[in-house]
């Protein structure tokens, strides 16, 4: 939003331009009556005829080409009503068109009074399109010139260009703290700016006004703003040379050359060198006899070459914060293998207590030790976790993962034992058996209901004379979800019975088994699934069947596989 002083100045310039244009246009009929017959656009012998200007500008920051079609709509000896159509393009993918109407009137004493209005449309270098109204007034004299323009974007004046950077938050355990990193981002919006410019010029008196040459120096300034982006304001200097008569070409041809310099804090220094050639489009019997004041009635309208726009970039820095609770308010205990050994992991999990959320990171070589959860406790490795940071913001962080690597872990049945209400999520659990020991990667404790075992990788190897299981159930596992796990059990040597998933139905156990990949191989007997009167809930679908057989029977229900088979 514009501040009060700026808005007042812009409104004043706008009103001045409109008033000048209205007064000038209103004077046309009266001038026609007083100063001779009024001629339309198709008069046989006009004083001022249509023309096409072709201009090229080479700048320190870009190059621009322009076509300018000037068409008189009506005229008499001292007044000219005209239309002006411009098209320009540069080497930075910017395109712009200007359609305008204007009037000029020759006053006694050598002054030409003019006013004009344009509708502008521009495609910016960022491929955004903006519209604008431009109003201007001018006084062109023999020795001095004065010009002022105001620019008013209309319609959609801003365009959101998107966001770079950013991405999902990530979590990492440092010591005993879960640190959440929210990546920084940059969002960009382009704004079309309201503004004005003005200049005063003086004829450099090295050529006589009766001759074909003219040299003028201009000094002025500009200011553009929108109340959001930094103000663009600074000085502008121009030097302009005009050759009104080129004998080698047809009558009415004009050649203009110029240099221009401007500076503002936003865009820095810019310089241009320009060359403009006029090509008349209608023969004029009187053109060669025009005096200095009459020739200047068709001088090009001078205005800003662009709908001025500016890109605002909003930078959101990368933030790293500690997270001590989940989004639901459950306390988080963070454990990293960098600071906690595998041998110490069982004690650290126990110390976290019931109803805790334990985030693990790294590889924990637990040997023959067993990690046993507390009631209603969650062990999580990889995955998405919604947390609340120290500043109070809620984010979903991507966790890197963790591995519990056991060797001959048989206590409580395996490497990890789950108590009632606990969850195992995103973990890799391995158990390597040899020398006659046997057990599981993960075992559900007897009577442990309301378990969640989701998105884990369970790997068991057996090289001794014994069996092994990936995930095994005790009794009484009511309301247990087994989802999205990859369970692989591989035997070698004298290995006996290999079982990927073993479910016991005693004590009212009921399981939902969905989206798992199950495989058992290398033993004397290989069971992908072994059911012992378990109840399989509805929705136990989308499982991937690997090697191994389906054995046993369910009290009710079946585990369904993607290849169309079921177990049982």
Termini separation comes to 71 Å
Overall outline: rod-shaped
Q: Which class of secondary structure composition applies to the elements?
A: mainly beta
CATH superfamily of the largest domain: Inverse autotransporter, beta-domain
Strand segment count: 42
Question: What is the mean predicted local confidence, pLDDT?
Answer: 91
Number of helices: 3
Task: Tell me the number of structural domains.
Answer: 2
Largest sheet: 20 strands, parallel
CATH architecture of the largest domain: Beta Barrel
The name CATH uses for the topology of the largest domain is Porin
| Percentage beta strand | over 45%
Helix content: under 10%
Please mark out the parts with pLDDT under 50 across 5 or more consecutive residues, or reply none.
1-18, 28-33
- Rg calc: 42 Å
CATH class of the largest domain: Mainly Beta
Summed up:
With 568 residues, this protein is mainly beta. It folds into 2 domains: 4-166 and 185-312, Inverse autotransporter, beta-domain (Porin), CATH 2.40.160; 319-567.
Can you walk through the features of this model?
The protein contains three helices and 42 strands. The strands form five sheets. The protein has a 20-stranded parallel sheet that branches. It has a twelve-stranded antiparallel β-barrel with strand order 1-2-3-4-5-6-7-12-13-14-15-16. A five-stranded mixed β-barrel has the order 9-10-18-23-24. The chain is rod-shaped, with a radius of gyration of 42 Å. 38% of the residues are buried.
């Amino acid at each position: 939003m514009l501040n009060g002083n700026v808005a007042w100045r812009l409104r004043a310039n706008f009103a001045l331009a409109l008033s000048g244009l209205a007064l000038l246009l209103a004077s046309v009929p009266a001038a026609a009556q007083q100063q001779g017959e009024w001629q339309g656009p198709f008069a046989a012998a006009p004083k001022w005829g249509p023309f096409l200007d072709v201009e090229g500008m080479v700048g320190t920051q870009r190059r621009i080409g322009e076509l300018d079609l000037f068409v008189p709509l009506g005229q008499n000896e001292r007044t000219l009503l005209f239309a002006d159509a411009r098209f320009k393009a540069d080497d930075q993918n910017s395109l712009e068109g200007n359609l305008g109407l204007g009037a000029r009137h020759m006053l006694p004493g050598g002054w030409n009074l003019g006013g004009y209005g344009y509708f502008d449309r521009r495609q910016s270098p960022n491929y955004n399109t903006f519209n604008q109204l431009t109003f201007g007034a001018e006084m062109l004299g023999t020795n001095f010139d004065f010009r002022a323009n105001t620019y008013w974007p209309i319609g959609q004046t801003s365009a959101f260009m998107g966001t770079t950077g950013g991405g999902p938050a990530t979590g990492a355990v440092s010591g005993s703290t879960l640190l959440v990193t929210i990546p920084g981002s940059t969002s960009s919006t382009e704004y079309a700016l309201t503004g004005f410019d003005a200049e005063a010029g003086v004829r450099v008196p090295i050529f006589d006004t009766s001759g074909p040459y003219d040299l003028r120096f201009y000094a002025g300034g500009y200011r553009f703003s929108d109340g959001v982006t930094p103000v663009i304001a600074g000085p502008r200097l121009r030097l302009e040379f005009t050759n009104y008569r080129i004998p080698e070409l047809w009558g009415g041809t004009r050649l203009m050359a110029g240099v221009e310099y401007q500076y503002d804090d936003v865009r820095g220094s810019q310089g241009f060198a320009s060359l403009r050639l006029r090509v008349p489009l209608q023969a004029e019997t009187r053109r060669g006899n025009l005096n200095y004041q009459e020739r200047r009635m068709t001088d090009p309208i001078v205005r800003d070459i662009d709908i001025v726009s500016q890109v605002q970039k909003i930078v959101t820095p990368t933030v790293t914060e500690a997270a001590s609770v989940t989004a639901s308010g459950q306390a988080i205990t963070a454990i990293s293998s960098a600071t906690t050994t595998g041998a110490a992991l069982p004690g650290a999990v126990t110390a976290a207590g019931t109803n805790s959320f334990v985030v693990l990171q790294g590889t924990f070589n637990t040997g023959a030790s067993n990690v046993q959860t507390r009631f209603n406790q969650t062990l999580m490795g990889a995955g998405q976790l919604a947390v609340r940071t120290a500043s109070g913001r809620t984010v979903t962080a991507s966790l890197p993962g963790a591995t519990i690597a056991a060797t001959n872990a048989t206590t409580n049945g395996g490497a990890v034992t789950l108590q009632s209400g606990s969850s195992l999520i995103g973990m890799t659990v391995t158990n390597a058996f040899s020398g006659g020991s046997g057990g599981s990667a993960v075992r559900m404790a007897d009577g442990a209901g309301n378990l969640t075992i989701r998105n884990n990788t369970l790997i068991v190897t057996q090289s001794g004379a014994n069996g092994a299981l990936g995930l095994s159930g005790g009794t009484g596992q009511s309301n247990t979800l087994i989802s999205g796990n990859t369970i692989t059990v591989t035997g070698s040597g004298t290995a006996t019975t290999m079982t990927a998933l073993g479910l016991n139905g005693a004590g009212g156990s009921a399981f939902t088994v969905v989206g798992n990949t199950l495989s058992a191989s290398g033993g004397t007997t290989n069971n992908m699934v072994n059911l012992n009167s378990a109840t399989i809930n509805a929705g136990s679908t989308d499982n991937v069947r690997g090697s191994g057989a389906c054995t046993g029977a369910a009290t009710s229900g079946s585990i369904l596989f993607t290849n169309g088979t079921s177990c049982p």
